[in-house]
Specification:
alpha/beta, 4-stranded mixed beta sheet, 4-stranded parallel beta sheet, 18 helices, 20 strands, 49% helix
Length: 480
Amino acid sequence: MSKPRTTFLSQEEIEAIHNASLRVLEKTGIKVMSETALDVLKKGGAKVDYGTNHATLPRQLVEEALEMAPKTITYGARNPKYDLVLDKREVHFTTDGYAPFIRDFETGERRSSTKADLADWIRIADYLDNVHLVWASVCPGDVPAPMQKITETIIALRNTEKHFQGEALSAREAQYQIEIAAAIVGGREELKEKPIISAVQCPIAPLVFEEGSVEAVIEFARAGIPVAPLPMPLMCETGPATVAGTVVVCNVENLASLVISELASPGAPVVYSCAAGGIDIKTGSAAEGAPEYGIVQMVAAQMARFYNLPSLVCGGCSDSKLPDVQAGFERAMTLTTSILTGADIITGLGGLNTASTMSPELLVIDNEIINAIFRIARGFEVNDDTLAVEVIDKVGPGGHFLGQKHTIEHFKKETWIPELSDRSDFVSWQQAGSRSLDEVAKEKVREIRASHKPAPFPEAVEREISQILKCARAEFLRSS
């Protein structure tokens, strides 16, 4: 099978990044704003200064953590047919996030998102075949802030049968999310065996771990919930001006988070991850549609393979404000590079305006873009049958192959057929309504919203989750 696979760095360059990262961890260190996490690090052999919330990590500690970390992780789902194995063989996709705005697909208006928008978004993601796990991409802005993450978890799991990737901003939020997921699968041991949730937990670049987030990492590690410590340094701002230097910051934050997880619970599942990239020098804002962004994601996927860890990188991102030509070429560029590099999970689908706005119709279009790129990534076979010498001889000069048995046997396998894109001639397209791609995608969104209903929770599970939600409201809203 001729299957394309891209590498960006030589082995020597990969080892240079690794050794530079170890020097930063040993000398510069990290800032950890949690006494609990500092205790974990100190007990494991790190040098800790509680007065300055500073820790340095010796090389041996990092190497031991890398040895403890699982090299393959199973992401469970409510419906076992959606279980995923992160083993560096297949690419899986999830949506972009986490956005305070949604682009109303009916009016085109950019507005604050609600819990109803989140439920719709999750159902659309659940329907699409190239969204393999779901992320709470839009914020339920009509829910009190202290309850948003817990509410997101419940809404997402109610509206998908796939694996859910969330986030917690404190240890207590993590504990509630673990409790919700455990109620669905039948207990904590069952959840640890096949977690139906995972968590993205972002360090603050450069090299800072916030109290709530890092304590949530520890809770997830002890419960066996996979964590993707998503570093987000930006070249020239929170990372050096060079791609290599920004990659080092990203790598250091990944390794530091992994050490914390493994010291908290040896064998904790950790997914090497990256959302680092460049900025627009003219505005100072992040540039997720830039070539540098795609380069950094490719390098991150290679670093993950170097450490033999599962990986999550970004792709399909865009700085455009509309589902337009700019959105199309930016996401196609970064999706292609990430897919061909072979990451386990690629996140970024459906996002506009540097992931601050989500677009339902764009999510549907992204599903089609991925199908097309998958056709490139799948490659082709070269053997006696596919070389087709006998068929060419049979047809001969000036003939055609349409009626050949060989064509009927192979065209579906070899030729990609789009669902949304229009390939008809101009007159046929005009007679069919002269519809643009985003208009076709809007119709698909309407269809999904009207017809797609994931399986509901059993009544007993719904009662238990309602009780968990009641307890969380009493705790968080009273304290706020």
